[in-house]
UniProtKB/TrEMBL annotation:
It comes from Actinoplanes teichomyceticus. Belongs to the bacterial solute-binding protein ModA family. Molybdate binds at residues 37, 65, 168, 186. This is Molybdate transport system substrate-binding protein. It holds the Pfam family SBP_bac_11. The keyword Signal applies. GO terms for molecular function: metal ion binding; molybdate ion binding.
Amino acid sequence: MKLRIATLVLTVALAGCGGDAAPAAGPGAVTVFAAASLTESFTTLGRQFEAAHRGATVRFNFAGSAALATQINQGAPADVFASAAPKNMAAVTEAGNAAGAPTTFVRNQLVIAVAEGNPERITGLSGLTGPGRKVALCAEQVPCGAAARTALNAAGLRLTPVTLEQDVKAALAKVKLGEVDAALVYRTDAAAAAADVDAVEFPESARATNDYPIVVLRHAANPAGAQAFVDYVRSAGGMRVLTGAGFQRP
């Protein structure tokens, strides 16, 4: 009997000692629809969130913001929406599918992604318009495409791309595969693919900065968990991950 009591006391004592180190009670499963350009950063934040909240699970659907907004408005099950532009967020809020007002949590700018070593020696937007130059852009209905059009207009350039992609990762893939000479992508995506591509900065990108809003969705199956994830993204730790990837604070 004495041995059993001693064992019980030791078990309770160990549980008490571990209280500070153990993760907090988990908020359950959270489904996040996020812009493709957030793939690397949000994947990291999702792992950190799960580690910090016992039992939490974060599931992601990464795609172009326009496609995600359409899916949400058609009833796709999601708890959180993070868009790469206010326009696509507005499509969700105006349809009555946001639980509150979206908050801008980061900003992003474009760069010219070229093959490693920049073999075509492209130094700015004007270098994309030469004879035979093959360039990939995002389609204008997705945020990276709208930003590209704004930047080209600011430079007074007309450009006919060889392909229009539905999200920034697809445009970047064309450079990585050697199918185009260059693509206009976000600085953060080029940084995430630095092993395969180089990034060429250009001044007109400052006039085409994209705001990234985030919101808990009205029909979220787990609104408390959704709010916890949004708060985590906006926390100091979340901002360290995002700015470390190249995003700018709003």
